[in-house]
Design goal:
Layout: E1 2-3, E2 9-10, H1 25-28, E3 34-35, E4 41-42, E5 49-52, E6 55-58, E7 62-63, H2 75-78, E8 84-94, E9 99-106, E10 111-117, E11 123-124, E12 134-135, E13 157-162, E14 172-177, E15 184-191, E16 197-206, E17 211-215, E18 220-227, E19 233-239, E20 254-257, E21 274-284, E22 286-296, H3 299-305, E23 310-318, E24 345-348, E25 355-357, E26 360-368, E27 388-396, E28 401-411, E29 414-415, E30 421-436, E31 441-458, E32 467-483, E33 492-493
Parallel strand pairs: 3-29
Antiparallel strand pairs: 1-2, 4-32, 5-28, 6-28, 7-27, 8-9, 9-10, 10-11, 10-12, 13-14, 14-15, 15-16, 17-18, 18-19, 19-20, 21-22, 21-33, 22-23, 24-26, 25-26, 26-27, 28-32, 30-31, 30-32
Length: 499
């Protein structure tokens, strides 16, 4: 048994059964008192709510008008099939160096590249000493040669995570899986600068589109393993150390998640949805994931038309890092699905998932335009895999779900430590009351306006005491939280907070 940061009790056998998005254990039996010390508290599920007559509203991210922000331009990005997108790669704001960083695939299944930005929108390809921004350079490239030696670093699935707790020379963690439909080992490595990687090691066998992520609340690395062919499911392998845990037996990588009966097909495609990929990151007080669904059609159909298959992104949320809920099955970022669109299909998430930029979340994603003129060519140059680029979508901070209407919301009993003030993220008119365990009033405030971080009142006197919060709302309520004297909520920063 493991007691988590929020007082959820995680049993030793927690991963023996797959995660069921409609049957999450901690939502059925939440803790008697929820610890809200860590991070801003989001209403992405009913975990915090004892009763309410407000209604949840699920928000889509708004695609940036200037998309794509990165597209194939250099000769190594154009190559045989033009691509310049992370897939999953990574987009981060480096909080130590105060710069945006991107790791992306250049040319379909050919090379990895590195880019930087001052604002997250305009990207530069730095000269890394040889006139290119290529990293993970290797010899012996042949489009028919898919996987071979540990030094054959040809990307299909990649993930880069920044690990601030590691020694400086291991700050960047890499996972790379070479292309091909057969299962074989992925590759993990470390770097001190995100450019020069070392300590390469094979993992146990995985299928393509496998990735990694880090759970900061439990300090666990997770291999998100694509399993199964042709029906796609996800396996889960957690470990304390990414490298020591790189090899596992079959019973150490458990069936984790897949599509279910609530995932509906697109009627005019008629393909039964499948789980294509999963990227996750710690965000404030939750694990935030992107559940990438494939809506079809299959590869052979797309190849005949030279068009990308349709995949889209649905957010998912967890408070224990294993069991994820998906209360809304609508895509937060969808494929445009029309001729001429840069993101016609094959929409995918990135390593790091999202980063925090002031009042907004920057959610980077990839899309493919395809090329109908290259229909029925061999798979490597076929139009379905051409013209891959990188885009940006924006969302209000904490803005995945809001509780809307003219009504009230009462939280379950809560406790916190080391805090001095209460804050809310809201739009409209809200009265907030902090109550003790017997529902006696401790503090209150009325606020009007639109703020992602409105300070309400001092809560120093109530540290380590059981409290509830009551919100009378005429408008939209996104989140609340308790901050320390520096205004810090103590939550996870996802792929970085821009400062």
């Amino acid at each position: 048994m493991e007691k988590l940061y929020n007082n959820i009790i995680l049993p030793d056998e927690f991963c023996e059964k797959p995660s069921d998005a409609s049957n999450v254990p901690y939502l059925k039996t939440p803790p008697e008192v929820i610890n809200v010390t860590v991070g801003r508290q989001l209403f992405v599920d009913d975990f915090l709510i004892e009763k309410t007559d407000l209604s949840p509203v699920y928000h889509k991210a708004k695609k940036f008008d200037g998309n794509p922000i990165l597209y194939p331009q250099t000769k190594w990005e154009i190559a045989e099939s033009p691509v310049a997108c992370p897939k999953s790669g990574g987009v981060w704001y480096d909080e130590e160096e105060h710069i945006f960083k991107m790791w992306y695939e250049a040319g379909w299944l050919t090379n990895m590249c590195y880019a930087t930005s001052k604002d997250g929108i305009h990207w530069e390809r730095p000269d890394l000493g040889d006139g290119t921004n290529l990293i993970l350079k290797y010899e012996g490239y042949d489009k028919e040669r898919l996987c071979d030696e540990l030094t054959y670093l040809r990307p299909d699935s990649t993930t880069v995570f920044i690990d601030y707790s590691a020694p400086k020379n291991e700050k960047y963690k890499l996972f790379l899986r070479n292309p091909g439909s057969r299962p074989y080992g992925g590759i993990v490595a470390t770097s001190g600068d995100g450019i020069n990687f070392e300590n390469f090691k094979f993992t146990s066998k995985v299928f393509d589109r496998s990735t990694i992520f880090y759970n900061p609340f439990r300090k666990k690395w997770v291999y998100s393993i694509r399993k199964g062919w042709p029906v796609r499911v996800r396996h889960y392998r957690e470990c304390d150390n990414l490298f020591e845990g790189a090899e596992w037996n079959d019973d150490e990588a458990r069936i984790w998640m897949q599509c279910d009966s609530l995932d509906s097909a697109i009627p005019y495609i008629g393909y039964e949805p499948q789980l294509y990929n999963v990227d996750c990151v710690g965000y404030e007080s939750i694990m935030l994931g992107m559940f990438q669904i494939m809506y079809g059609p299959e590869n052979d159909v797309c190849e005949k038309g030279g068009v990308p298959k349709i995949t889209e992104l649905i957010p998912m949320y967890s408070r224990d890092g294993y069991h994820f809920s998906r209360p809304c099955r609508d895509s937060i970022i969808n494929a445009s699905m029309h001729r001429g669109a840069w993101d016609r299909g094959y929409v995918q998430s990135v390593g790091g998932v999202t980063l925090i930029n002031g009042d907004e979340l920057y959610i980077y994603y990839i899309g493919f335009g395809g090329d109908e003129s290259r229909a029925e060519e061999p798979w490597f140059t076929n139009g379905m895999y051409r013209n891959g680029a990188t885009g940006l979508a924006k969302l209000r901070r904490d803005g995945f779900v809001s509780m809307n209407g003219d009504g009230s919301l009462l939280t379950r009993p809560m406790i916190y430590d080391g805090k001095t003030s209460m804050h809310i993220n809201f739009k409209g008119n809200v009265k907030v009351e902090l109550l003790d365990a017997d529902n006696n009033l401790l503090a209150s405030a009325r606020v009007s306006g639109d703020s992602t971080n409105m300070r309400l009142f001092d809560v120093s006197a109530y540290n380590n005491k059981v409290v509830r919060a009551r919100f009378d709302v005429d408008g939209e309520l996104y989140s609340f939280g308790f901050a320390d004297a520096c205004g810090d909520f103590g939550g996870a920063h996802a792929a970085g907070i821009v400062k």
